[in-house]
Design goal:
Layout lengths: L1 E4 L5 E3 L5 E9 L8 H20 L18 E3 L9 E5 L32 E5 L3 H6 L3 E4 L4 E7 L16 E5 L5 E5 L14 E2 L4 E4 L10 E7 L5 E2 L27 E8 L20 E2 L5 E8 L6 E7 L5 E8 L7 E7 L8 E9 L2 E9 L14 E8 L2 E6 L5 E9 L4 E9 L2 E6 L5 E8 L4 E8 L1
Parallel strand pairs: 16-22
Antiparallel strand pairs: 1-3, 2-19, 3-20, 4-7, 5-6, 6-13, 7-12, 8-9, 8-11, 9-10, 10-13, 13-14, 15-17, 17-20, 18-19, 18-21, 21-22, 23-24, 24-27, 25-26, 25-28, 28-29
Length: 462
């Protein structure tokens, strides 16, 4: 993997504060996902397991003529603060020629082949942003695209590869009711479902974590499908998918060829490093609580934004006035790109919760971070009306209140990445107030406000 820096030279700017800007493409490199020898051994393993499971009565060859309709096989975990965790680097190659004779289902070239005669046989869904960080923190889950029976599993293989090798991958293989089989490859070592060969899974059920085992240049899922006759299937229906299996799409809802989206908007204490070397976690420098005098980096991580499309950032003060507003047009088409703005301390002339708002590809994402003095539960000023008892116990948040009884407050809960988890009105009575708290385990920021009161607190949720 490598990154390319592209400075934003042509900008349409309406700005109220200065910021250093930059960014560019994040390019996911391609390699043959499986050597022919490994692929042959997998086919042999699957065939043997199928025969064994049929003899045990755990598998029928084919009990329906209806092909499965897939859901998307990658989803973000509950702990992931991003808007989305994936982008597509490659589709199935429909041109049997090689090398560099490419044609995907949509008659484009979003696929690859090799000089050795390999034509890409699946869909590569890579994690973006921070693929190694996501893998280490189990933030991108592989789920069953359709219900079926686990007919094979591979585990125990190294999962931080970045180049061609002859190693096997960690994978789960699921056979569906029509006899078709889906391969889920490159999974993180020891992340596979605890279910064993012969057990059934439902659509959407956890299978593992996106990793980089086997022939892999970085964390991604290789999703490969075969019909009941063991013929390769491209689940996408399109003009250049002329295979017999393509009479209809195999997806419940087929995604577009390009999927423009804002994967994440985040704040950082420094310039992130996306490539620290093979298998090494990125330097993320995530930060959402800034002291006065500190600079702030805002990053936008995008996927599939069309060339020429406008990208806009607005930096909003705590009173929602605009501190910074900048736009530029996407210079090229990238399956993944990153863009950053480095704001100097003088930008932040108000203390409180600031917002970075990114608009791109027809959608808008908002990220909230605090600037200035943030009073947490450990630093509640003497005489404060509110004290949050931390940590959370038994899904109950305890709030000690010493002000006017039955006072209404707006309560906002943010993740440490600055994402709004929940908000609403609460009425506090004198003494201890118990509120339900069902967020995933982790640390949070609670912001309590009224017409005359504003305070933020740190919450530990064990």
């Amino acid at each position: 993997m490598k990154t390319k820096i592209l400075t934003l030279g042509m900008l349409t700017v309406l700005q109220f504060a200065a910021a250093q800007t930059g960014g560019g493409e994040f390019k996911f490199q391609n390699t043959e996902c499986l050597s022919e020898e490994v692929r042959a051994s997998i086919q042999k393993m699957i065939k043997a397991n199928q025969q064994k499971l049929r003899m045990e009565g755990k598998l029928t060859s084919k009990n329906t003529l209806v092909t499965p309709l897939f859901t998307w096989p990658v989803k973000k975990s509950a702990s992931a603060s991003y808007n989305e965790v994936w982008s597509i680097s490659n589709y199935v190659d429909h041109n049997a020629g090689y090398p560099n004779q490419l044609q995907d289902y949509n008659c484009g070239t979003r696929t690859y082949d090799t000089s050795g005669g390999y034509n890409h046989a699946g869909i590569d869904i890579f994690t973006w942003p921070f693929g190694w960080y996501q893998m280490d923190n189990n933030q991108a889950e592989v789920i069953a695209a359709a219900a079926g029976t686990i007919i094979a599993k591979s585990n125990g293989f190294y999962d931080r590869n970045c180049a061609f090798n002859s190693s096997n991958w960690n994978a789960v293989y699921v056979q569906h009711s029509d006899g078709s089989v889906a391969w889920y490859g490159h999974l993180k070592n020891n992340s596979l479902t605890s279910k064993s060969v012969g057990q059934s899974v439902n659509a959407g059920e956890y299978l593992g974590i996106v990793g980089s085992s086997g022939n892999s240049t970085g964390p991604h899922l290789h999703f490969e499908v075969y019909n009941s006759s063991n013929q390769l299937v491209d689940p996408y229906q399109g003009t250049c998918n002329t295979w017999p299996s393509a009479t209809q799409s195999w997806w419940q809802v087929q995604k577009n060829y390009n999927n423009p989206k804002i994967n994440a908007v985040s704040s950082h204490s420094g310039e992130v490093v996306l490539n620290n070397g093979c298998g090494v976690q990125e330097s993320t420098f995530f930060k959402n609580q800034f002291n006065s005098g500190e600079g702030v980096y805002i990053y936008a991580f995008l996927s599939d934004i069309a060339v020429g499309s406008p990208v806009n950032i607005q930096l909003l003060r705590p009173d929602n006035s605009v501190a910074y507003n900048q736009s530029f047009n996407m210079p090229q088409f990238y399956t993944a790109s990153y863009w950053y703005w480095n704001f100097i301390p003088a930008t932040f002339n108000q203390t409180g919760n600031w917002k970075a708002q990114i608009t791109a590809g027809g959608s808008t994402q908002l990220h909230t971070f605090s600037y200035g003095v943030l009073n947490t539960a450990e630093e509640v000023p003497e005489g404060s009306q509110i004290k949050i008892v931390s940590p959370v116990r038994d899904h109950e948040l305890l709030i000690e209140y010493n002000g006017k009884s039955n006072q209404e407050f707006t309560m906002e809960i943010y993740s440490m990445e600055g994402k709004l988890v929940t908000s609403g009105k609460v009425h506090l009575r004198k003494g201890i107030n118990k509120l339900p708290f069902h967020a995933p385990t982790g640390n949070y920021i609670a912001r309590m406000t009224s017409d005359i009161y504003e305070q933020s607190f740190k919450i530990l949720n064990y």
